[in-house]
Amino acid sequence: MNTKQSRRKFIANKVISVFYVFCMALPLFSQEHSRGKIAIPDLKGYITLKCDFHIHTVFSDGAVWPTERIDEAYYEGIDAIAITDHIETGNRYQLTNQLKVDSRNIAHDIAAAHAKNKGIILIRGGEITRDMPPGHSNAIFLSNVDELVKPDYMDAYRAAKSQNAFIIWNHPGWVCHQPDTTLWWPVHTQLLEQGMMHGIEVANGGTREYSPEAHRWCLEKKLTMIGSTDAHAPMQKQIDFASMKHRTMTLVFVRDATPEDIYDALKERRTAIYHEKYVIGEEKYLKELFENALEWKVTKGATWCSNEILITFNNKSDLTFYLKPASHDPKIVYLRNMVGLFTIEPKSEQTLKVYLLDDIKGGDVNLIVENFLVQPNTGMKYTVKIEN
Amino acid sequence: MNTKQSRRKFIANKVISVFYVFCMALPLFSQEHSRGKIAIPDLKGYITLKCDFHIHTVFSDGAVWPTERIDEAYYEGIDAIAITDHIETGNRYQLTNQLKVDSRNIAHDIAAAHAKNKGIILIRGGEITRDMPPGHSNAIFLSNVDELVKPDYMDAYRAAKSQNAFIIWNHPGWVCHQPDTTLWWPVHTQLLEQGMMHGIEVANGGTREYSPEAHRWCLEKKLTMIGSTDAHAPMQKQIDFASMKHRTMTLVFVRDATPEDIYDALKERRTAIYHEKYVIGEEKYLKELFENALEWKVTKGATWCSNEILITFNNKSDLTFYLKPASHDPKIVYLRNMVGLFTIEPKSEQTLKVYLLDDIKGGDVNLIVENFLVQPNTGMKYTVKIEN
Amino acid sequence: MNTKQSRRKFIANKVISVFYVFCMALPLFSQEHSRGKIAIPDLKGYITLKCDFHIHTVFSDGAVWPTERIDEAYYEGIDAIAITDHIETGNRYQLTNQLKVDSRNIAHDIAAAHAKNKGIILIRGGEITRDMPPGHSNAIFLSNVDELVKPDYMDAYRAAKSQNAFIIWNHPGWVCHQPDTTLWWPVHTQLLEQGMMHGIEVANGGTREYSPEAHRWCLEKKLTMIGSTDAHAPMQKQIDFASMKHRTMTLVFVRDATPEDIYDALKERRTAIYHEKYVIGEEKYLKELFENALEWKVTKGATWCSNEILITFNNKSDLTFYLKPASHDPKIVYLRNMVGLFTIEPKSEQTLKVYLLDDIKGGDVNLIVENFLVQPNTGMKYTVKIEN
Amino acid sequence: MNTKQSRRKFIANKVISVFYVFCMALPLFSQEHSRGKIAIPDLKGYITLKCDFHIHTVFSDGAVWPTERIDEAYYEGIDAIAITDHIETGNRYQLTNQLKVDSRNIAHDIAAAHAKNKGIILIRGGEITRDMPPGHSNAIFLSNVDELVKPDYMDAYRAAKSQNAFIIWNHPGWVCHQPDTTLWWPVHTQLLEQGMMHGIEVANGGTREYSPEAHRWCLEKKLTMIGSTDAHAPMQKQIDFASMKHRTMTLVFVRDATPEDIYDALKERRTAIYHEKYVIGEEKYLKELFENALEWKVTKGATWCSNEILITFNNKSDLTFYLKPASHDPKIVYLRNMVGLFTIEPKSEQTLKVYLLDDIKGGDVNLIVENFLVQPNTGMKYTVKIEN
């Protein structure tokens, strides 16, 4: 065997170790994508992490291998994810009668090294998958998912609690669970009172569901607002990134980009939801996101037809802003003859023309940010002041 | 329990059958894509099928569940696929020490019902994965992949042959197997002579490899030209469909869209390859693809500056055509002052201006179709005749 | 001088006739665009023409030569246009003190041959450009624009009437004319009663103005609804065609594509307006546009979680449809957990899921088509019936 | 008349001054585009200006008003333009028998204030438009275009020279002038020797013409290479900016962004041409553009199959780079199995894999940059060194 042949002789023909097999095939085909970036501003004292805490793999009824979920997060600019395969339902391999999984920790364990390598925070999780009530819940920050395999669902929640898990009631308004009305059941009060419900999934990307009831409950009961994909298919199959779409995610406002800080932030309800074109959350956070995403300057416009003032918004973020006028002094005229909404596209400038009548020198331009929901189905008010 | 509750009581809490689990989760999240269409013309007497005979799943080192491969084909407009997981290397679950697969037929079997439902032709296959020589080969149209599990690779090929498999030498120029020169080894002569090599993968989408040597061998040794993806990752991750990219595929010219006719067509070398912007194949097929994809009409142009003739090409296909002038009568002037290639984009019209000097009335517009390779790295000549 | 030289000797050096000059330069650079098509359905007995009756050229304060307006219409799929340069204001050449235009008919006359050649219907028009009241009006279907040059604006309107012009009040809510409130002035009553106002420009693309007052006046006073661009700049500069935007236009429902039929249709108020994503018009027309643009079929969905019914809309048009639920029987559930609108994109399918509770067999799916305005700022109701 | 009425009374009904007319109409409709940017790097000691010295308006046979040319340049990121209307042919208004232009300076004069306002450098020019020979030439940096109106073309050139104009022979290979062969005529020698030819238009965007002969003459005769649009239609009509296309332009390497420095740079041949995907110019400039546009780093790749080296190119510019291998040491393997070219898209990263055989530690990766033309139709060689 000559040199050339021996150089190629890196795999023995007969003894094929698993290690070699992986080396042989993966580096060849791995698609190298660069790290994505979703431009959503930080808040004062906090970094804004983009997180998705509800994801499936082939280890329950998802369609992709766990490492793929890391690549997706890396490519899209997601900072932290949890794989939350269904706990009770075993996995799709059981269908085949040929495979068995001894541990519900396996998907996380397979993905962990790749996550570390790619700089993605991976949080161990599982989905407690029961009929309504109580429906489905995600437990994240678990140490051992297997301990949640219990016949009685309350035992499963207790096991999660004993691991200090953060527990999220998933898609409360899902049509298969609550077809006509999204109800809060007695068991949810019980879970809440016993410290076994910390957040609710107000928006779910899989069903494209936004639940105004869940939104209200979060505000009333001091629960954390969560948005997630509930992804089963490959992410690129579901989301048209070329059209600037994004996955449903939870924005978590942390001091540092660590799992511990994410846990603390979730417990302290420092989150907002980015779902389709909407940002959903407490007004204090949304107001700061608005102000940090947009810069604007007020200049004088043309003088020949009226006292025209130009408010030029510069959107430095990937968010879109949909504005309409709120009630205001009739001497300040803006957006009067317009159908649809005044839209500030991502990474662009847009100028709002304001007319000051009867020689007034300034005043309040009251706006409603239609897609910044601070109450169920209700946009945030914001006033831009014009001074003389 | 009231009516509303009982309506929701479709899953028992404790006894969870696999059947119910699947019902619960899959219909909710299944992304409904419509059937794709790749516009490549049929030939006289033959339908042009778009096929991909080299695909991996989680049952070797791929990243997706087998049914996903059907959805991808459906969405993209692919007519037939073969799942060809590595035979010798077992599968990635072995890594976990928790899973085992008893049969190499499993990926195919899982996907079969979904394929039927979606109208995708699914061909049973496997990849004989050995060091060079002989390197990797796909055996397709197998009846039982497990019989190819043999210590000696010749036994594996013989087992494939005994099942009347169609056998393809994969990516002969792969850098890990043949880094500097793409060689034909004695064993390949042996395989060919013993009826255990029927085609060569001239183009491989995973490595973006086109092998001019493989192209030449196919022409010289009467082997079938194959192009395939060798997909491991989700297809949408690898291919930018929004930018009108497509997977590497084999065009198979069949009488009817049946597995049997695909088999016959492969054996009779009725194929071409569609790889990136290139179509690779025998001139008789490429000429007919060119003529069936393009319509053109010759009209008179402006008369004020020269005898101008307009050839207006109407491309009804999704193929792109890159043309440059071949040697021609100097009295026929075209594409003289141009850098780059005369490009006819998919589904569009493009006009070529020709100037007839010295009162000649017509003649031959000789062109080279740069991206229709009829010989290794060599474009097809085509003449458009202008008559007086 | 040899043959080669003489062949090139098509222009005499010294005597340069205007005819030769044009031949020399224009055919060289004319950009050949293919004919555009805007897919908006016809109505029963009527062809839907896409028209723009408010356009400027360099012969008032526009920025392009008249023939360019024909090319734009051809490229975009517009069927008929009127060039309506400002009558009273002369043209921008006067600025130079070097040019003079003797006739306001010149822009039309220059464009006429090109319009005929390209198959665009060109209607002679002019804009009576006065202060408010009465503001600006377009007179179209004129025979001689020059006769409208009158010191007293009522004389200008009378001259238009004597030519049987169709007269449109332009942009009544324009901020420079009516900054705070869009008023109907006594003179407008006078114009209406004397047959010198036939339509109102409800939507104006230049200012992106939609006037709900104008919309209401058209409905109340039986005036024709007009939408137009008021284009001054090149169209491609103003409208982002690559993002599937379109010019503001009047849809005119004619028996035949002739100027005469357009005139009759305008007089009989057979129009609707296509402005940004909105269609504005009488309900009888918009209902038929909706039904002819969309096909839908009702099928059974999954049975495992509820009685699911699928309404699959197939949008064959270039219109977008934004739907939201109207009040309906609570036993029919649809679009319950959704933020934003149910959107049917152009040339695509979209499926609406409906759940029938308590074993009902069918009923009314009441929808509001948010962007089909049948009253000022008010969407059209539409019911899709589900039968058992 | 009440306040509201009087506020609107900004235009007198009867006396219409030109000043008011413009105020009324233009500010309303002017489309506000933000300043464009074409990312092409500066050179050491020089700023790279993007210039277009061949543009027409309605004051010869163009289709747009002069100010529009300024808006186009502003929007696209062009730094300097010259309006070069045909001198001898008068203008298209003569066709009408109603208009006359007394001065060929008018287009420039109309555009000048707008250019200043927008920060675009506007250079006075005119096109000497004659039969071949000598064909068409642009004279730029003129002080008075009218002095070039002469029966004898040599007198026109002399008048240009007496104004210290920079004179460019336009589109020498234009099919109407030189259909079969692009010849250098005796008169061109005469013009060159008498200091009346300083550059040649090697690339013309209107005809999409690149002239290899002109390229060669520039190199041999020390003439400045010029690329320009020869625009007649609105720029957005001709160039598909949404597909990242750009106008043909001259890159001028200046010390400061002033007209004087542009003049000096042109005289000193500090230019390159950016035409379609090609950059054309002297090697010393193209090499520096290459190095300043691209950063690359060399890292070690996978070790399991060969000694793999990764060259990761980071393209910070809007240029595209098309690379192919030049002859090289056979122990350094790269781009071996590839059809087409190795492409580095604008503003993106691309990794080139190199394999070092036989334990060599480094060497030269010789490349040809296909679209950087340093000789007629000949790409630039570039070597990336890999060190051990």
Describe this protein with a few key phrases.
388 residues; Immunoglobulin-like; TIM Barrel; 4-stranded antiparallel beta sheet; alpha+beta; homotetramer; 10 helices
List the helices and strands and how they pair.
4 copies of one chain form a homotetramer.
Chain A lengths: L2 H5 L10 H12 L17 E9 L10 H11 L3 E4 L22 H13 L2 E9 L6 E5 L12 H10 L3 E4 L16 H8 L5 E6 L4 E2 L1 H10 L2 E5 L6 H4 L10 E6 L4 H9 L3 E5 L2 E4 L1 H11 E7 L6 E9 L5 E5 L6 E3 L7 E3 L3 E9 L6 E13 L2 E9 L2
Parallel strand pairs in A: 1-2, 2-3, 5-6, 6-8, 11-18
Antiparallel strand pairs in A: 1-9, 3-4, 4-5, 6-7, 9-10, 10-11, 12-13, 13-17, 14-16, 14-18, 15-17, 18-19
Helix pairs in contact in A: 3-4
Number of domains of chain A: 2
Mean pLDDT of chain A: 89
Element-by-element helix/strand order of chain A = HHEHEHEEHEHEEHEHEHEEHEEEEEEEE
Oligomer: homotetramer
Distance between the termini of chain A: 89 Å
User: Greatest contact pair?
Assistant: C-D, 78 and 78 residues
Q: What would you say this structure looks like, in words?
A:
The structure is a homotetramer of 388-residue chains. In chain A, 24% of the residues lie in helices and 30% in strands. Chain A has helices spanning 3-7, 18-29, 66-76, 106-118, 153-162, 186-193, 212-221, 235-238, 259-267, 283-293, and strands at residues 47-55, 80-83, 121-129, 136-140, 166-169, 199-204, 209-210, 224-228, 249-254, 271-275, 278-281, 294-300, 307-315, 321-325, 332-334, 342-344, 348-356, 363-375, 378-386. With 388 residues, chain A is an alpha+beta fold. Chain A folds into two domains: 33-281, Alpha-Beta Barrel (TIM Barrel); 294-387, Immunoglobulin-like (Sandwich). Chains C and D meet through α2, α3, α4 and α8 of C and α2, α3, α4 and α8 of D.
